[in-house]
Amino acid sequence: MRVALPDSALGAARVSLRAELTRRRRAVSAGERAAAARRATLNADRALHLAAGQRIAAYAALPAELDSAPLIALAQSRGCRIFLPRIDRRRRSRGMRFIELDGPLRENRLGIGEPEGLTAVSARWLDVVFLPLVGFDRRGLRLGTGGGFYDRAFAFRHLRRVWHKPLLVGFGYAFQQVEPLAAASHDVALDAVVTDEGFIRCTTG
Question: For the chain, which domains are there?
Answer without folding.
Answer: 11-201 (3.40.50.10420)
